[in-house]
Amino acid sequence: MRERLKKQLARFDAFSRRERIVVSVAVWLVVLFVMDTLAIAPAQRQSGAMAKAITDKQSELAKGEGEVAALRQKRSQDPEAEARARIAELERRIAEVDGQLKSAKTQIVPPEKMAGLLEQMLRRNKRLELVSLRSTAPEAMDRTEGAAAPQRPDAAPAEALYRQGMELTLSGSYADMLDYVAQIEQLPWKIFWGRMEMKVEAYPRAKLTLNVYTLSLDKTWLSI
Questions:
Q1: How many Å separate Cα 190 from the centre of its chain?
Q2: Contact between residue 75 and residue 81 where contact means Cβ atoms under 8 Å apart
Q3: Using one digit for the tens of pLDDT, what is the confidence trace for 122-160?
Q4: I need a labelling partner for 137 at 20 to 30 A (CA). Which of 45, 47, 84, 97 fits?
Q5: Phi, psi of 153 (to 5 degrees)
Q6: Residue 124: CB partners within 8 Å, gap ≥ 6?
């Protein structure tokens, strides 16, 4: 290897000055090419990738900071947004409950129709005799009877709910009275049962006193 190197150097020394310059430049170009291929270019590609990654992260950060700034500005301009969102949710819930109440009201017999409905059911059974029919005093329902949650002190008072009732006394056989009660329970409208009292007159006849009621927001007595 040393002998070959000595021969190459001897040949280089034999070149003219101009030839030695040309060869030196060519060697340096080869060295630079090798360095660029093996070291510089990969480093440049790596640094370029890093620069792009940094730029991307900076853009992402700037975008995030912009969004935060926009949210802060929105919050400063609209500090009650959370309260309004809560109000909107409560209004949605109120509308839902209102719909449920309206649905329930369609299932309960209207107070003004209850007397006529009871008499109509009675006419279907000719063996029963109506002894008396009268309305009872409206009775405000105790709010603790329902499952309603306690109200806030500053909340508007809820409308009072009244029991609108009637008392009717029937005379007839036990089987006919039982049939009459069953027919009332099968009505599409809901009638609520109150007190029920039966007295035997002379077998098989008895006297049945029924207290029935419906629900209403009106305190006015039922008319017969």
A1: 30
A2: yes
A3: 888 888 999 999 988 888 876 544 444 444 444 444 567
A4: 97
A5: -60, -30
A6: 183
